[in-house]
Automatic annotation (TrEMBL):
Keywords: Plasmid, Signal
GO terms under cellular component: outer membrane
Residue stretches making up the Glycine zipper 2TM domain: 69-109
InterPro entries on file: Gly_zipper_2TM_dom (IPR008816)
Name of protein: Glycine zipper 2TM domain-containing protein
Pfam family, one: Rick_17kDa_Anti
Superkingdom to which the source organism belongs: Bacteria
Signal peptide (from-to): 1-22
Length: 160
């Protein structure tokens, strides 16, 4: 029973680590609960330039930039490696090797999960002011296109 509990706890810990590394959406199609039902404004704008970018989430303790996913991966891998592989002194070597491999895998996964495709769009308002908005690339825009600049509690968004 205790072994099953330990395995369940380690599986839960691994899932929590990788879930914590998930990126926060900046899509114009996604609203957080705190943003819904709040007043905002919309302004017609014209696209001046569109450029693909990569959005990297570096906020939070579990982000890839902190190194925490690698450290946690090393601890979990070392514990599992020492428990599952080898007996006697061999289990220390197994723990060290599996900890190192787990750290590299966890950090690589965190780096991958914290990056996503985005788009930087420069738009011009009717009064000639230019505004830059960066958001997820789930909508494609072209130069000269008429869009709506939505502003509210979550910042600015561009949409058709």
């Amino acid at each position: 029973m205790a072994t099953m509990f330990k395995r369940f706890f380690l599986l839960f810990l691994c899932c929590a680590i990788f879930t914590g590394c998930a990126a926060q959406p900046t899509s114009p199609n996604t609203y957080r609960g705190s943003e819904a039902l709040r007043r905002g404004s919309a302004e017609a704008v014209t696209v001046v330039r569109v450029r693909p970018v990569t959005i990297v989430d570096s906020d939070g303790l579990i982000s890839a930039n902190t190194g925490v996913p690698g450290v946690l991966g090393a601890v979990v891998g070392a514990v599992l490696g020492a428990r599952v592989i080898g007996n006697g002194n061999g289990r220390y070597l197994a723990g060290a090797l599996s900890g190192t491999v787990s750290a590299v895998i966890a950090q690589t996964a965190a780096n991958h999960l914290s990056r996503r495709n985005g788009v930087e769009v420069i738009v011009r308002t009717d009064n000639g002011r230019q505004i830059v908005v960066t958001q997820d690339a789930d909508q494609q825009f072209v130069t000269g296109e008429l869009l709506y600049l939505i502003s509210g509690a979550g910042g600015y968004r561009l949409t058709r």
